[in-house]
């Protein structure tokens, strides 16, 4: 799970960088998201990511360019911006899923969460 959060975060850094939105979208998806398999993602985002992938690869490539580049080239600026926004939304959902899966602290006899001794800093 952490790997996917890191990959989406890296894609966001590219999207927030310098350049035309279409160029940033191509770089972000190709470098960080294209090789993620839908079945590796949390159930809550599988379909959304599959839909995004289809959108990013809907056009057959020409002249040696890849499907992602060809698809983004054919997008309007609004469509490219919407795809970038979907990546941001997916990152948020995956990050929340990761937070939900963090292990809880053990409970003491009094019902309070107990911090394990190895986590307590001694003075």
Secondary structure class reads: mainly alpha
Percent in helix: 55-70%
Individual helix count = 5
| Shape, per Cα inertia axes | elongated
N→C terminal distance: 35 Å
What percentage of amino acids are in beta strands? under 5%
Number of domains: 1
Radius of gyration: 19 Å
Give the helices and strands, then pairings.
Blueprint: H1 2-15, H2 21-33, H3 43-56, H4 67-74, H5 77-100
Helix pairs in contact: 1-2, 1-5, 2-4, 3-5
Description:
The mean pLDDT is 86. 59% of the residues lie in helices and 0% in strands. It is mostly helical. The chain has one domain. Helix 1 runs antiparallel to helix 2 and helix 3 packs antiparallel against helix 5. The two termini are 35 Å apart.
Notable traits:
single chain, 123 residues, mainly alpha, 5 helices, elongated
Brief write-up:
The chain has helices at 2-15, 21-33, 43-56, 67-74, 77-100. The protein is 59% helix and 0% strand. The chain has one domain.
């Amino acid at each position: 799970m952490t790997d996917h959060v890191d990959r989406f975060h890296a894609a966001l850094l590219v999207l927030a960088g310098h350049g035309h939105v279409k160029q940033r979208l191509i770089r972000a998806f190709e470098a960080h998201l294209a090789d993620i398999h839908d079945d590796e993602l949390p159930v809550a985002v599988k379909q959304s990511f599959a839909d995004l992938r289809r959108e990013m690869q809907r056009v057959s490539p020409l002249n040696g360019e890849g499907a992602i580049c060809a698809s983004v080239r054919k997008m309007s600026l609004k469509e490219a911006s919407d795809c970038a926004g979907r990546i941001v939304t997916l990152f948020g959902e995956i990050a929340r899923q990761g937070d939900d899966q963090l292990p809880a602290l053990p409970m003491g006899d009094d019902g309070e969460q107990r911090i394990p001794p190895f986590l307590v800093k001694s003075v």
